[in-house]
Write a structure and sequence with these properties.
Layout: E1 3-4, H1 15-22, H2 35-47, E2 52-56, H3 59-70, E3 75-80, H4 84-87, H5 92-97, E4 100-104, H6 113-119, E5 129-136, H7 149-162, E6 165-170, H8 173-180, H9 184-188, E7 193-197, E8 208-212, H10 214-226, H11 235-247, H12 252-267, E9 272-275, E10 282-287, H13 293-301, E11 305-306, E12 308-309, E13 314-318, H14 325-337
Parallel strand pairs: 1-11, 3-4, 3-5, 5-6, 6-7
Antiparallel strand pairs: 2-8, 7-8, 9-10, 10-13, 12-13
Helix pairs in contact: 1-11, 2-11, 3-10, 6-7, 12-14
Length: 340
């Protein structure tokens, strides 16, 4: 048995999703003629109470486009030190937007208004101008930790007061919403832009959507073209996204339940020092210093269980729609086996 827990990006399209893709009506999206892409963009925008959306190949592209929309050269983005936009997007903030970054130490990647306020630069020629705050929900390196709307609201009010834009890297926003039961449309009232990912927990093979005002999305469309993100008959991919939004949100709670079961089993192993509290579908644990994390990864892989090294002595396991309860039971048996 192969149990791939490296990421929720490894999912394969289901038969229903493939059927939707094969039957999609397509056109040339760069000419604005792909009705399925347009339907996806409109659907996602309506969900979050935003005016418009832009379909892109990846969450990295949607994040980087948003940053470029809301910053100018010599300005600064305020975000957490673990943020995906800083650590995993190839230095794109510097390369694409010529902006600097102020890194803060949040609670498992989550910022507060007080932390942000202390980091806002004064209006002084010696400092880059603070122009954008970016939050991540859920937080990848925080072990799937998430914000509630009540956590974000003080940040929203601070940004309004200080004339800062607010962006959400919502790569796993639906995992957060499944736990909080907050309304997606409430997010549209607080963020200038939101990036949602379709190819993680929702199971689509490719794609993210950037949501914002109609004016910003028009600007974003031009930036997407410059970055090489203008796709032609992209409706085949957009159809997978529509299917994902229609069918794969409610089932995310299954992934969360599987993650909690797996975390409990990891906590019982002698070679595991600690496990971060599990809030959604990501499990991060610390390997005892007597056993290197690469050794554990190798031993698990010998039994067909895949996970990733996630820093010094850390391992990450991510549950998703291609992982069922039988696979979790098998993984726990393997964890017990290599403990002896």
């Amino acid at each position: 048995m192969i149990v791939d827990l490296r990421s929720d990006t490894v999912t394969k399209p289901s038969k229903g999703m493939l059927d939707a893709m094969f039957s999609a009506k397509v056109g040339d999206d760069v000419f604005g003629e792909d009705e399925t892409v347009a339907a996806l963009e409109q659907k996602a925008a309506r969900m979050f109470g935003m005016e418009a959306g832009l379909f892109c190949p990846s969450g990295t592209m949607t994040n980087q486009i948003a940053i470029k929309c809301f910053t100018n050269p010599m300005e600064e983005v305020i975000t957490d030190q673990t943020a995906h936009i800083y650590n995993y997007e190839g230095g794109g903030i510097a390369f694409n937007s010529l902006a600097s970054v102020r890194l803060l130490e949040g609670n498992r990647g989550r910022l507060t208004a007080d932390l942000i306020e202390d980091a806002i630069n004064p209006d002084n020629i010696h400092h880059p101008k603070s122009s954008l705050v970016s939050l991540e929900n859920t937080v990848n390196r925080g072990g799937g930790s998430y914000y509630r709307l009540e956590d974000i609201e003080p940040i929203y009010h601070l940004c309004r007061l200080k004339n800062l834009s607010l962006h959400l890297d919502g790569a796993r926003i639906f995992n957060a919403l499944e736990e909080t039961k907050d309304e997606p449309a409430a997010y549209g009232r607080m963020f200038e832009s939101i990036s949602i990912c379709l190819s993680k927990g929702l199971g689509a093979p490719v794609g993210s959507v950037l949501l914002s005002s109609a004016e910003t999305i028009q600007k974003a469309r031009r930036i997407r073209k410059v970055l090489g993100g203008g796709m032609r008959q992209a409706g085949y991919l957009a159809a997978a996204g529509i299917y994902a939004l229609n069918n794969n949100i409610k089932r995310l709670s299954e992934d969360h339940a599987h993650a909690r079961i797996l975390a409990a089993a990891l906590g019982e192993q002698s070679y595991i020092l600690s496990v971060l509290p599990v809030e959604t579908n990501i499990v991060i644990c610390e390997v005892d210093h007597k056993a290197h994390n690469s050794t554990i990864v190798e031993r698990l892989s010998q039994y067909g269980v895949k996970c990733t090294m996630f820093g010094k002595q850390l391992l990450r396991f991510v549950t998703h729609l291609d992982i069922d309860s039988e696979m979790i039971d098998y993984t726990i048996n393997v964890l017990n086996k290599i403990d002896h």
